[in-house]
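Whiteboard transcription, Tuesday session. T.W. wrote the C-alpha cells on the left side:
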C-alpha cells in the first residue's frame, strides 16, 4: 500500500522500493518505476501500484489416486511480477488516490490463477498414480509436474508473472487410511525393536556367560595354584622336618659321643682313683702288716684320739690305772 499524504488540495505519494508505481494523467504516463515519490492532483491522476518482490503462495488441495484414495497435497509456489506494465494492463492494480489502497484484489486473482493451474497439473499426475506410489514418490513427481505445467502455462507470461520456485511439502492420505498404513509399519518397527532387544539380551547373556566362564576358569586356575602352593608348602615342611630331624640326629649323635667320652673319662678317672686307692690301701695294709700289735694299738689310739672331741680333763679310776700299769709292766720284759 502506497503512502499518500494531503497538502492544500495536492497529494504526495511515496512508494516502496518493492512497489512499481504507474501514474497516468489525461491518458499520459507521467511516472513509471519502483520507489517513486511525487506530488499529484487526486481528481486528474490514475495510479497503479504493482508489487515486484518475491511472494509465497501456500496452497492445499485434495486429489484422488488411481485406486480411488483421497490424498491432500500441501505445496508452496514462489512467484514475482516480472513485467509490471503488462500486469497492470491485465489486472486491476489501481489504488485509491486518497488512501493508497487497492480498489480491487489483484493478488487474490493471481493466487487463484496459480492455485488452479498447479492443482490441475497435480491432479493429472495423481489420478494415474496408486496410493502407495503417491506416498513414496508423489512429492517429487507432483513438484516436477507442477513446475513444468506452470512454466508451460501461457497465461502467466501474458500476465507478466514469473514462477521462481515450486515446493511440495507433503502428499498425505486421509487420517483413517494413514493410521491403517501406519499399523504394519509400526508393527514392523516394533518387531525390529523387539528383535534388537532380544539380540541385545542375547549378547548380554553371552557376555555374562563369557564372564562367568572366565571367572570359573580364574577360580580353577587359582585353586590349582593353591593346590600347588599347598603341595609346595608340604614339601617345604617335610624337607624342613627332615633337615631338623637330621640336625637333631647329628646333635644327638654328638651328645651321645660326648656322653660316651665323658663316661669313659669318668670311668677312667674312677678306675685310676680306685687303682690308686687300692694301691694305697695295699701299701697301707702292707705297712700295717709288718708292724707289731702294740704299734697298731698305739696308732689306733692315736687315730682315735685325733677323732675324739676336745677333752679338758680325764678322770682315771684306780682300777683302770692299775690295769694299764699292769699291762705296761707286763710288756717291759720283752
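and on the right, the sequence the group agreed on:
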Amino acid at each position: 500500500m502506497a503512502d499518500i499524504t494531503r497538502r492544500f488540495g495536492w497529494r504526495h505519494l511515496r512508494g516502496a522500493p518493492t512497489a512499481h508505481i504507474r501514474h497516468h494523467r489525461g491518458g499520459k504516463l507521467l511516472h513509471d518505476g519502483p520507489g517513486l515519490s511525487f506530488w499529484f492532483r487526486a481528481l486528474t491522476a490514475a495510479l497503479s501500484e504493482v508489487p515486484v518482490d518475491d511472494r509465497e503462495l501456500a496452497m492445499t488441495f485434495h486429489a484422488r489416486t488411481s485406486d480411488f484414495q483421497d490424498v491432500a497435497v500441501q505445496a508452496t509456489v514462489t512467484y514475482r511480477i516480472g513485467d509490471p506494465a503488462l500486469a497492470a494492463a491485465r489486472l486491476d492494480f489501481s489504488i485509491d488516490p486518497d488512501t493508497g489502497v487497492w480498489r480491487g484484489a489483484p493478488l487474490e486473482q493471481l493466487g487463484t490463477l496459480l492455485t488452479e493451474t498447479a492443482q490441475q497439473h497435480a491432479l493429472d499426475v495423481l489420478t494415474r498414480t496408486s496410493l502407495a506410489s503417491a506416498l513414496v514418490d508423489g512429492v517429487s513427481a507432483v513438484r516436477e509436474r507442477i513446475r513444468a505445467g506452470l512454466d508451460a502455462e501461457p497465461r502467466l507470461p501474458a500476465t507478466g508473472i514469473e514462477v521462481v520456485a515450486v515446493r511440495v511439502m507433503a502428499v498425505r492420505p486421509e487420517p483413517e487410511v494413514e493410521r491403517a498404513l501406519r499399523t504394519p509399519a509400526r508393527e514392523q518397527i516394533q518387531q525390529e525393536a523387539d528383535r534388537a532387544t532380544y539380540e541385545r539380551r542375547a549378547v548380554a547373556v553371552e557376555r555374562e556367560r563369557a564372564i562367568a566362564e572366565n571367572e570359573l576358569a580364574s577360580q580353577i586356575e587359582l585353586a590349582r595354584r593353591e593346590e600347588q602352593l599347598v603341595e609346595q608348602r608340604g614339601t617345604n615342611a617335610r624337607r624342613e622336618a627332615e633337615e631338623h630331624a637330621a640336625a637333631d640326629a647329628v646333635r644327638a649323635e654328638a651328645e651321645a659321643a660326648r656322653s660316651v667320652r665323658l663316661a669313659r673319662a669318668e670311668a677312667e678317672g674312677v678306675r685310676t682313683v680306685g687303682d690308686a686307692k687300692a694301691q694305697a690301701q695295699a701299701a697301707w695294709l702292707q705297712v700295717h702288716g709288718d708292724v707289731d700289735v702294740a704299734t697298731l694299738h698305739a696308732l689306733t689310739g692315736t687315730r682315735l684320739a685325733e677323732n675324739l672331741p676336745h677333752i679338758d680333763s680325764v678322770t682315771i679310776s684306780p682300777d683302770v690305772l692299775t690295769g694299764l700299769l699292769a699291762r705296761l709292766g707286763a710288756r717291759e720284759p720283752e
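Someone added at the bottom: The beta strands are 3-7, 10-14, 19-25, 28-34, 37-40, 45-51, 55-64, 70-81, 161-173.
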